[in-house]
Amino acid sequence: MRGVVVLLLALLIGGCEKIEVYKKSADGRPVEFGPREVQCVKCTMQLESKEHSAQAIMPNGRVYFFDDPGCMALWIKDQKDAKRIKLWVYTDDTHRYIEAKKACYRLGVQTPMNYGFGAYEKRRDGCVGFDRFVAMMARGENMTNPAIKKRILERQ
After folding, report:
1. What CA dihedral angle connects 122, 102, 144 and 80, to 10 degrees?
2. Which of 29, 113, 131, 156 is the most exposed place for a label (fewest CB within 10 A)?
3. How far, in Å, CA of 25 to CA of 30, rounded?
């Protein structure tokens, strides 16, 4: 047992990379990051790229990252001062960050946490607005729900 503890400590001390939980934004806009440089504040997964990512910029400029739009939705519903937080989401169609409340969200996309909501700048069939997307996530109406996943996959 002591050997396992020593091994775990060695891995933790020797194998730790510096992973940032947040950065700062001076202008309230999304910030750049490299692969595995930041992690999702909700699920703690490292972000590999901008694809499917989101950012929350707090009033003090602190930026929190999300690897999946679903993580952002679950996180924001628990924030006391949500109206003062600026949310950005990286779109699947135009491949840029836009304000999350201006995006539309479509279920049936492969995302890092398998929630399955892709964000789009241009409206398309089956898209829902931000508030409905957050409500659907809160109710578990996403691709992690086997019944929802089956229904979506049957339509595709």
Report:
1. 180
2. 156
3. 7
Q: Which amino acid is at 4?
A: V
Give this prediction's pTM.
0.84
Q: Which domain holds residue 111?
A: 18-155
Residue 45 resides in a domain: yes
Total domains, the chain: 1
Residue 125 is assigned to a structural domain of this protein? yes
Burial category of 139 from C-beta neighbours within 10 Å (exposed 0-12, middle 13-18, buried 19 and up): exposed
Find the Cα–Cα–Cα–Cα dihedral 136, 137, 143, 147, rounded to 10°: -50
pLDDT tens column, 88-107: 999 999 999 999 999 999 99
The structure tokens listed for 122 are: 């241009």
Nearest Cα neighbor of 51 from 22, 109, 91, 100 is 91
Q: Do residues 70 and 76 touch, judged by C-beta distance below 8 A?
A: no
pLDDT single digits (tens) 8-50: 444 444 444 556 666 888 899 999 999 999 999 999 999 999 9
In a domain, 9, yes or no: no
Angle at 41 (CA atoms; ends 30, 103), nearest 5 degrees: 45
Q: Is residue 110 part of a domain?
A: yes
